[in-house]
């Protein structure tokens, strides 16, 4: 059977007078792919690849069907048109290749992780309570879709009418499979159910996924800046953010995330095209058109239509538009979402009078306004939260035209009261969490408003815990980081020197020694703050970026580790940092000592230079091997690790704790022993050097504790989280002291949702509302009370 397909392909190529190189170039596949298919070495051609070859050959319909039939007989029934590497053939996507099996295993692990994540998220959002709200769609105007011949992948000269793509929520996978190009755009106004549809698409597709099929992964495309990152690079970066284990080296040395994307194992489900920043939608659409990746894209209609008007439609993509909920949908759903009424009519609910009015007086102003608002799943679920799930609220008040002057005021009323309803006191206990904290709604509104405003300023829907400090001014971030690093060194050195001096009575009656040690501590703190603050400015603050979370952990015994080529580079970085820091610190320290001892200017420079050389060598001997040891003991995280924000935070905390416990004694021992070893040879070069053993121990301990602690605060994501989210922002009243507990509680209350390793607001409309009200002149000010902390019971 294999030679039947290869013989047919070779015969068709010869009939067109093409070489293998010409066919490969026109089809967009590798020459080795064409050669392998013709010789039978590649035993499993993708149907999508066969379509590309048929297009390049310009086959007539009968010849096209014959070639496809040969491919199907060869591949068997398990293959699908949208299998991995269908759009661009590569060695990684070919069964039997060296790269296929390892990537297939990683893709299966990724599929399991994605399934678990979105099943939990769907349950948390109560999508099935009491049943999913209807989500239906219809075809869009032709100007928003590509030519149907392109969508159907037909050869030149072929004509075909549009496909019938109408359907409902449980049919989305079937509708997608009917599109040969594998590219679908789903349009819908705010709150119409686009995100719910993407989640259902991912879960249903994974449920029926064959082992050779792509893995659908949801990406919030609103955070993509096409002017800074290519589409594939952005996909790989998002994968490694949500699955840190995919930073591990894959086939060819590239990270696993990049290998999965490049070989076509990932089916991008791009949610929120309309959330891309203004001015970037056109280049984003052009970048998507530059690829042939199958994908599913959601957007609000106006933003997508505007981008299309500026450039072109999404190439080879069909498009559908979500429709509004009907009154029958409301009549079925709302009564079942609330408790039964008591009294004469036990089967009735508080919604019955409202629904009856909507049916009987649809043209009245009050009913028309309310009906216009309750046409999207978002507003219906919020109305349920405010009126069905909150005792004492009567939905009949929604028909009061004196209170609500139009649909806009009704929407604002729902959004205003959603936070209040979410934070109403509840007596229930949550599993593994004890009683739910009783948080004042006004305080919660202020903190959520700050977070919403923070995201709006950053231009992203993703609430990343390691970027909570990024909303501050860049100078503030650098200054706070420098201050914390300096304080860490000063406190550490002061504690160590004070303890050692008190134990031997070194400070008794010797104000000169006290002054010397004070200057030593102040110099170390000042220079550390300046050095780390300056480095932080150029590495992160000036670029307006944040320190990314670590994708590795420390493993001392057993387990695979990162390739050893990173060890020499880390060693060189450590040597360079040690020399520069040690020389600067030693030079300043030597000059200050000369000033205190009133030594003349020539000796002043000489001593400063000698101390700089000495400390530069000593710190280089400590930092270089310490950095190399750190690289040697790092190992990638598991592919299925850190599937939520708290999980990623805990993973980074464990990693930093392990690094601190390992690096502190290693760095301190290397500095102290390096000083001891280099004392004699440096004495030959610089003149007599005499350090007591207690001084060497002191230098080692203070360097280990203070140096590593300041490094953690300045250059690790967890350290920055501690500096800004656990200290600075709560201290200034912008966030509560227990930030993680607050975010997790907001997630459990349904105000936030989880999208991989980040939080998002339940809906972009809610984020916009909270950010706008937070910036309004009459908005509530920062919470007062002990540290602005949320009261708990």
Automatic annotation (TrEMBL):
Regions crossing the membrane: 478-502, 514-538, 571-592, 612-633, 660-679, 699-724
All copies of domain HTH cro/C1-type, residue ranges: 9-64
Keyword Hydrolase: no
Keyword Ion transport: no
Alphabetically ordered keywords of this record: Membrane, Transmembrane, Transmembrane helix
Pfam families: HTH_31
Full protein name: NACHT domain-containing protein
InterPro entries on file: Cro/C1-type_HTH, Lambda_DNA-bd_dom_sf, P-loop_NTPase
UniProt cross-references to PROSITE patterns, sorted A to Z: HTH_CROC1 (PS50943)
Feature: compositional bias, Low complexity: 776-793
CDD domains linked: HTH_XRE (cd00093)
Originating organism: Streptomyces luteireticuli
